[in-house]
Automatic annotation (TrEMBL):
This is Carboxymuconolactone decarboxylase family protein. InterPro entries: AhpD-like, AhpD_core, CMD-like. Residues 17-96 form the Carboxymuconolactone decarboxylase-like domain. Coiled coil: none annotated. Pfam families: CMD (PF02627). NCBIfam families: ahpD_dom. It comes from the Bacteria.
């Protein structure tokens, strides 16, 4: 399977990608735990059907020390016992924040309260920005049909400026 357009070699897309990577760097450097960042990115990507991002965030999570057992259970996190209460709150936010079109209420007050009970202002800001960023990345990759499987951890590290 080939992508509909190579966004890495297109001048406009590459310039946008560089700024996108810079925005991601702000989140990666935030106090939001890396594990939470990867779990949230993985769950949103699963919901959106973005194979490229599922591949990326699974591999990045493993490279950061995440267990395969936990990654295997992200899609079924409600029934799994391997996630902390803070991670469960973040995963609930990821689902509700990703499925905005599916739910007329958006993010529920209950989910928001759970998130606020586990994360400080900076972590919440990073979590909200991460959800916006991963959902945008999912849409870009799904639209152009970027294939999954070729990602290597760290391959986009040089994109920022």
């Amino acid at each position: 399977m080939d992508a509909r357009i190579d966004l890495f070699t297109n001048e406009i897309a590459a310039a946008f990608g560089k700024r996108f990577a810079n925005a991601a760097t702000v989140i990666h450097r935030s106090p939001l735990p890396t594990t939470t960042q990867e779990l949230v990115s993985l769950r949103a990507s699963q919901i959106n059907g973005c194979g490229f991002c599922v591949d990326m965030h699974t591999k990045d999570a493993v490279a950061a020390g995440e267990s395969q057992a936990r990654l295997n259970l992200v899609a079924a996190w409600r029934e799994a016992t391997v996630f902390t209460e803070a991670e469960r709150a973040a995963l609930a936010l990821a689902e509700e924040g990703t499925r905005l079109a599916d739910a007329h209420h958006g993010v529920s007050d209950e989910t928001w309260a759970r998130v606020r009970s586990h994360y400080d202002d900076d972590q919440v800001a990073a979590l909200v920005c991460l959800l916006a960023l991963i959902n945008a990345a999912n849409r870009i990759n799904v639209i152009v049909r970027n294939p999954a499987g070729s990602y290597e951890p760290g391959m986009f590290a040089g994109m920022t400026s």
